[in-house]
Amino acid sequence: MIAIKLFPIVAILNLLLSAPGVFAGKLNPETLPRTGCNMNWASFHPTSPSLPLTNVLRIADNWSSAASFERDARGYPTRLNPGEAATTRFFGQNPYPTGPEAVYTLRWEGRGTLEIAYRGGLYRIDEKAKSPIKLTFPEGTKGPVELTILSTDPTDRLRDLRFYLPGYDDGSNTWTDHFLEFYSNFDIARFSWGAAVNHENASHIVEWEDRRPPTHFTYGMSPELGEDYGVPYEVMIELVNTLDIDLWVNIPHLVSDDYLRTAARLFRDQLEPGRRVWIELGNEVWNNWFPAYHDLTEEARQATAVEQRQVYLGHIYGRRALNMFRIFGEVFSITGDRHRLVTVLAGQSGWFQPMEQAFGEIEREGGVDAIDVLAIAPYFGPNKYEGEQRLKGLIEGKSPTDYELDDPFWNEIEDVLRWAIDNRFDPVHEGGAENMKYRALSLRTGIPLVAYEGGQHVESFSGGEEWIGPWVAPINRHPLMVRLYEYYLDAWQQFSGHTFLFHVDIEPATSDSAFGFKETYLQPDEEAVKFAWYLDWRARQLAKQKETP
Questions:
Q1: Under DSSP, is residue 116 helix (H, G, I), strand (E, B) or coil?
Q2: Which pLDDT score is estimated for 545?
Q3: Does residue 4 register a pLDDT over 60?
Q4: Is 527 helix (H, G, I), strand (E, B) or coil?
Q5: How many Cα atoms are found within 13 Å in the side-chain-facing hemisphere of 455?
Q6: 390: part of which helix (H) or strand (E)?
Q7: Three-state SS across 330-370?
Q8: Which pLDDT score is estimated for 14?
Q9: Distance CA 520, CA 502 (A)
Q10: Nearest partner of 346 among 365, 362, 330, 332, judged by Cα
Q11: Cystine design at 350: which of 81, 431, 500, 521 (Cβ 3.0–4.6 Å)?
């Protein structure tokens, strides 16, 4: 078992890390919060399973039209020619309140004609209508809702539309009660997908005016329209101030120094005094799914020619991250608030090279003291290091419907995934050996190691649909996940890992993936196996803290 293998090393490490002076001038891991959670990428999509914002237009598609039209700074059409219309879409197959008791409120400024179309019905609001109006959808309505501006008065154009979920109105919090309740169970909220760093737009956010302001029509992702400018920082700050938790925000990778200084002042001045902001440059810059990988790789290619030495993506990441850390550190230090800032240098779990390059570049520039934490994402699952063939040999050709919940066959699946957990932290295996390098770096420098993401990684989107797809949701809904997560968190702590952020909050379980702690915002806590485990685990951890003198 992993605990037995690592215990002597861990005991020595813990003694060293607790010795006086080890953390002189550095962040003491004992002051770090215990857990956090990542926003699901779909939280800010029109078909969000979490409905995080009280005004659903904030997660709607941007206006689309058969013809192009001018838009104002908030994204509203300034003029529509005869026959033109501007349409946005929200909801979908995701659950949303319906029936006579679920009363929505539509508010707007200006004059014009609107339509709200849903499956089976239509509301038409002419230019004589007065804001607000109340609407309902028939019980059981499913599918998208479309709001269309058919005409807008150029002298008093339609603007500032708000479509509130039942129970909310202009005086309400930006965030829904159920979303606040969910995140109240964590110590940190991490905005990665919601921070506009994973979509192609990230390459075009350089100056402060390039970002989406809080007054904009929508903060939502619109993949069909090729848009994602992210949730405004002010709205992120409102969430964590309301809940009294920390904020972890991923900063677009090409932003200017002026952008960084403005952002730093905003976080410093608007976060409540007891709150910390964790800053990370981009998200998984080594991941070729994301624009940072391509941009920084090209920058490294150009630097190689200029410097006449081999420069890699990791070196460029280290330079840019250090520049961000120093600017934020300067802004926070001016007012004596440096302790409210946590700088994050991230690497890929199971592959140390990008971190080695980034850290080496920062070390070369004398900037190690600017790093507060190192971060990895130690997922466990049937990847090439951790039992893909074992699991495939076990379940291929079989159906989960053939096995009752208490059938011993599930124990065999659990054994394979438990072995996968061991491999994340066991130097005998390739992935574990790479992770031990992160641990060694943490020990050498006294910089705590945290998890920016983590959890199970039983999925089919990266391959293996035919053999694993039918099993993805059943495995994630099975009680074996309780035992696996308990074992996993124990292994992480014995690995000397500190703050752990789970991935992700609310996401439906499908044959593609099942990362969510809950499947929809309506799912009862006790029916969400992983979330129910987490609530119990957290309660036990808090009880231990109270017992400790």
A1: strand
A2: 83
A3: no
A4: helix
A5: 25
A6: helix 388-395
A7: HHHHHCCCHHHEEEEEECECCECHHHHHHHHHHHHCCCHHH
A8: 40
A9: 17
A10: 362
A11: 431
